[in-house]
Structure formats: structure tokens, C-alpha cells
């Protein structure tokens, strides 16, 4: 297990890093107390690989796990948090106030942490996003939280899809983010979950101009970073994938004081820079690397590369060979 402490404490819990005799207790302490404020019992050999983060008013756990049962323990302080469980792969059964709901692939469920009953992860393992939201902080955004409890929420589109993608992106960024960035990100996550649950009119207006915009822009940037090394990628391609208009996407980038074309160019240049710095590509010509990074015009590539890095592609390659 690895840990980073501070106002945004984070943990990486991998069972193979913990002695077998301590796994259950570590899981209870890191996952049960940090995110859900409940107790848990394994239903077989304990195998987990999860990232857990504690933020003011918000707990996050993402990863994979073997089967276990979640329940309240009288030794724990009662929590009025609202608990969100999203099943990305696998399934679980949630029991709450005598009501039972299955949560399978492509579904999420919100329940009260004060009354959580049983969560049985079914055989075969489980990949999930699990979050706890402070009821005191979330209630003003949604009015009556009870309306959304134990109501299956689709994860394939809308605010819930944005929330899950945003959370995964933040978890991947890990401790590279500043406390101020995490503070803003926490507000965005509250915006998105409020929209998914049924935000008040005022909260919805704020969320669409704040949390939704930021989450969409982050998802689009991640998409470009993954696929942006191809010169044929266009604004229209990105718009179709995210079910938005190309004009709206351009406005998102303009709101940051940049442009979609500049960001895409930066990603292609970054890809070229990484290949030029990688000894595994030392036998390839600069022309071939430029072409793979999405540049069809070598002169333009050289000019753009020098403007971005204040060095020529040959300089970067030579510097990598000396290190």
C-alpha cells in the first residue's frame, strides 16, 4: 500500500503489497473508513487494486475487487453521507431498508450511508467507482435526496457518464494535482452528481456553466491526447464522439484562452517529442516520426516544433542520445 497525506489524502491499495494476515484490516481501514464509513467482510480470498482519496466532504474509491459484504458496525460513527456505487464491470446487490436492487454493468445506484444494508459483490470480481458525498453539502443542490435513493442510474450518457469519466481522469492524474485544483474538482463532482440525481433549477444552471463544462473539456482533452497523434483527426470527429457540436467544442477551448487547433497541435508535437526522446525510436528518421505524429509537411513540423520547444527535432534527439 502507498499513501499520500494532507488535505487530499490518497491511498493505493493492492493486496499483494500487504501481508495476507493484514489485508482485511487494511481494507477496512482504508476503504471502509475513508470512503463509506462502514465495515466490510470478505466473502472469499481478498484481492483488490484500488485508488482511494479523501477530500473535504467527498470520498472516492476506484478500481477492482473480489467479493465482500458491506454493513454498518456499531463501533463506527454513523454517517449521513450519500453513497454512490457505479458498476463498470461485474455486478453487486444493494439492500437498503428492506429493498433490494441489483447494480450491474452500465448502472449506478445512490443510497444513504446512514442506512446502508448489504452489498454483495458477485463472483468473478468487480470494477467500480464508489463515492461518498456529504449530505449537508449536497442537499442544497438537489432539494430532496430521498427521491434519488435506490433508483438505478444509467452510466452510459448524461451527467453520470461525465462524472465517472471525470473521476477516472482525476484519479489517473493522482498527486500531480494541486490542493486548489482538487478543491475546484470537488465542486465540479458535486455539480455533476446533483445533475444526475435531479438538481434544483438554480444548481443546474450553475452546474452546466461550471462542472459540466470542465468535465466535458477534460474528457475531450483526454480523447485528443489518446487519438490526437493522427493528422486526420478533425473537430467534427471529436464532436461526433462526444455528441456535441464542433462549435460548442471550440467555445470550450476558447473559454480557456486557447483554441482546439492549438491544443491538437500541441498534442501532436508532444507525441513527436516523446518519440524523439525515446531510444526505442532512435533508428527511425525524423521524417517518419513527424508523419506518425500527424504532420504531412516536414517544414511546417520543424517550424512548429522549434516554436514549441525552442529546439529543433535534431537537438532533442541528440540530447536524448547523451543522457
TrEMBL record:
PROSITE patterns: HTH_ARAC_FAMILY_1, HTH_ARAC_FAMILY_2. InterPro entries: AraC-bd_2, AraC_XylS_family_regulators, Homeodomain-like_sf, HTH_AraC, HTH_AraC-typ_CS, Tscrpt_reg_AraC-type_HTH. SUPFAM superfamilies: Homeodomain-like. It comes from the Bacteria. One of its GO terms (molecular function) is sequence-specific DNA binding. Signal peptide: none annotated. SMART domains: HTH_ARAC (SM00342). PANTHER family: ARAC SUBFAMILY, HTH-TYPE TRANSCRIPTIONAL ACTIVATOR RHAS-RELATED. This is AraC family transcriptional regulator.
Amino acid at each position: 500500500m502507498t499513501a499520500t497525506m494532507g488535505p487530499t489524502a490518497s491511498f493505493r491499495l493492492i493486496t499483494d503489497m500487504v501481508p495476507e494476515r493484514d489485508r482485511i484490516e487494511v481494507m477496512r481501514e482504508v476503504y471502509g473508513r475513508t470512503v463509506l464509513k462502514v465495515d466490510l467482510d470478505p466473502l472469499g480470498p481478498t484481492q483488490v487494486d484500488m485508488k482511494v482519496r479523501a477530500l473535504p466532504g467527498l470520498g472516492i474509491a476506484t478500481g477492482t475487487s473480489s467479493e465482500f459484504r458491506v454493513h454498518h458496525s456499531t463501533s463506527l460513527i454513523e454517517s449521513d453521507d450519500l453513497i454512490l456505487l457505479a458498476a463498470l464491470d461485474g455486478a453487486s446487490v444493494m439492500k437498503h431498508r428492506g429493498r433490494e436492487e441489483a447494480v450491474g454493468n452500465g448502472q449506478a445506484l445512490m443510497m444513504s450511508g446512514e442506512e446502508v444494508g448489504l452489498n454483495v459483490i458477485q463472483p468473478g470480481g468487480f470494477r467500480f467507482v464508489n463515492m461518498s458525498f456529504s449530505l449537508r453539502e449536497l442537499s442544497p443542490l438537489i432539494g430532496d435526496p430521498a427521491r434519488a435513493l435506490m433508483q438505478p442510474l444509467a452510466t452510459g450518457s448524461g451527467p453520470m457518464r461525465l462524472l465517472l469519466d471525470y473521476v477516472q481522469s482525476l484519479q489517473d492524474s493522482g498527486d500531480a494535482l494541486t490542493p486548489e485544483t482538487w478543491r475546484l474538482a470537488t465542486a465540479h463532482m458535486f455539480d455533476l452528481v446533483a445533475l444526475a440525481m435531479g438538481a434544483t433549477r438554480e444548481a443546474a444552471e450553475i452546474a452546466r456553466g461550471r462542472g459540466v463544462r470542465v468535465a466535458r473539456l477534460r474528457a475531450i482533452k483526454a480523447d485528443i491526447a489518446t487519438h490526437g497523434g493522427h493528422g486526420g483527426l478533425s473537430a467534427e470527429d471529436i464532436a461526433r464522439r462526444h455528441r456535441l457540436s464542433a462549435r460548442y467544442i471550440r467555445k470550450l477551448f476558447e473559454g480557456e484562452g486557447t483554441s482546439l487547433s492549438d491544443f491538437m497541435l500541441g498534442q501532436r508535437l508532444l507525441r513527436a517529442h516523446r518519440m524523439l526522446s525515446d531510444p526505442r525510436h532512435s533508428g527511425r528518421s525524423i521524417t517518419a516520426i513527424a508523419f506518425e505524429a500527424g504532420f504531412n509537411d516536414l517544414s511546417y513540423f520543424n517550424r512548429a516544433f522549434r516554436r514549441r520547444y525552442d529546439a529543433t527535432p535534431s537537438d532533442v534527439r541528440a540530447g536524448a542520445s547523451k543522457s
